[in-house]
Amino acid sequence: MGRTKDEQARLDRGNRWKARGVSDLTGDGCLDMMFVHPEFQGLGVATQLLCRVEEEALRLGFRRIYTEASRTARPFFERNGFSVITGQIVEKRGHALENFLMEKLYV
Predict the structure, then answer these.
(1) How high is the mean pLDDT of the chain?
(2) What is the DSSP string of 59-98?
(3) Which residue in 78, 75, 99 sits closest to 87, CA to CA?
(4) For 30, which DSSP code?
(5) What superkingdom heads the lineage (predicted)?
């Protein structure tokens, strides 16, 4: 799913635009990416992005969304109703990284 300007929280800084954060939901319900610019962390941007992702997932008829959350992101997703399915070690660019496969079900 491509991102639209409406899906990306932005801030006008003079003549420049700086993305506060971005997120992406794939066609199979994966929250594939979520990033919040360090200047805007702790201000609710990730929560707003997640709400938009969830709205889109429900609009598309998904009964579940899932993500592979880092150790740092895991508490955020747990606070927002996600459950850990499993911990896993994945290789990215030759480095072993721990993350958590998490899901949120919609009844």
Answers:
(1) 87
(2) HTT-SEEEEEEETTTHHHHHHTT-EEEEEEEEEETTEEEE
(3) 99
(4) B
(5) Bacteria
Q: Which two tokens stand for residue 98?
A: 């721990």
Tokens of 46: 């990730």
Which own/partner contact pairs does 18-25 have at CB distance under 8 Å and 24+ positions apart? 20/45, 21/45, 21/46, 21/48, 21/49, 22/49, 23/49, 23/50, 23/52, 23/53, 25/1, 25/53, 25/56, 25/57, 25/65
Whole-model pTM: value is 0.80
User: pLDDT tens across 1-39, in order?
Assistant: 454 444 444 444 455 667 889 999 999 999 999 999 999
CATH code of 5-105, in short, is: 3.40.630.30
Question: In this model, does residue 56 exceed pLDDT 90?
Answer: yes
Helix (H, G, I), strand (E, B) or coil at 58: helix
